[in-house]
Structures are given as structure tokens and as C-alpha cells.
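W.,

You were right to be curious about this one. When I first looked at the sequence I had no strong expectations either way, so I just let the prediction run and decided to look at it fresh. Below is the sequence, 195 residues in total, followed by the output.
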Amino acid sequence: MTRLPVYILAGGHSSRFGSDKARANLSGELLILRVVRMLRPVTTTVAVVADSADKYADLGLRTITDRMADVGPLGGLEAALADCPNESWLLLCACDVLVISPTWVEQLLDSTRGHADCAAFRSDRWQPMPALYAQSCRPAVEEQLRAHEYSMQRLLDRLTVAALPIPADWPDLWQINAHEDLDRYQASVAKRRRR
């Protein structure tokens, strides 16, 4: 399996969650460490992009900061691209996903054989994470930031993207926005175990 640098975005305010989602406890494991564990088979390096340096140093995770504050995931992508200029591709992921499969990453990688700036899943709209981004998309990212256009959907509409259908094993609930989402996920896991 091909390995590549992974950047996990954890710079949001978690306003709907009420506390740092990355540190939410799911069955005895912090959510961000769960993401790192699930992605370990595909990583060369892991870095977290957050609002302050060393925010997750206590967890043994290298943390870099957004170079532009409060511009959302687009700013996190810009920081990631700037952090690894010698790499062809990087994987961008959110800290609050419940499930991410190395197989999905392999599918994204397989789709980059032609000329593309990005490889992403798409249904009725883009899934900007998890997705692969090439250094070639950096000028478009920087241009959007200068124009104060922070939409990842807009970025992906502008780039040459290898678009893949949503994987068949993509779960209905795969990302945490509120404590209720954690409760719902844990209840569904418990229900499956009882079967």
C-alpha cells in the first residue's frame, strides 16, 4: 500500500459540540487518536493543523498552525501544503470522523494516475475530506484565500479533480458535530454487537 503524509484538521471552534471534538472520548479512545490509528497503514507522517502550535503535543502529535486564522478548512489545507512542499500528494482529513478506511485512501490514490490536482469522493456534492491534494492546487488555494472565498466546494469546482463515487461502505453517520452524534454512534455499535 502506498503511504503519504496525512494532515488532520483540528482547528475549528467546535461550537456545536461545546468542547474540543478532537479530544472527545469514544469507547475509551480520543477521537483524534482514533483517526490516526485508522490511517496508520497509509501514512508516512501525521501532522495536525490547529489554531495553536503544540496543541496536541501531549498526545505525541506534531501540530502546525493555520497561517491564516479563522478561514476554515481552506486555511488548514494551505498550511498543510506549505508544510510539505517536497511531497507530490497529501491526504487531508478531519479530526471528527468516526470511520475512515485505508481502502478509501487507496481508491483515491489509484485515481491520481492521470493529471489531477485533487482526488475526492462526490455524491450530490464534493467530500473535501478525506481527499488527496497535490502541490499543483496550491496557487488556487492561495488565490481563493486572497479573495476571501473560503469554500472548499468552490475550490474543488475550480480544480482538476479525479472524482470517485462515495464508497459502498461509507456509513450514514461518519462525522461528529454534536454530543448526540457520539451517543447515536455508540448506540448503533452496541446494537450491532448484540446481534
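Here's what jumped out at me. The mean pLDDT is 88. And, maybe more interesting for your project: The radius of gyration is 16 Å.

Coffee later to discuss?

I.
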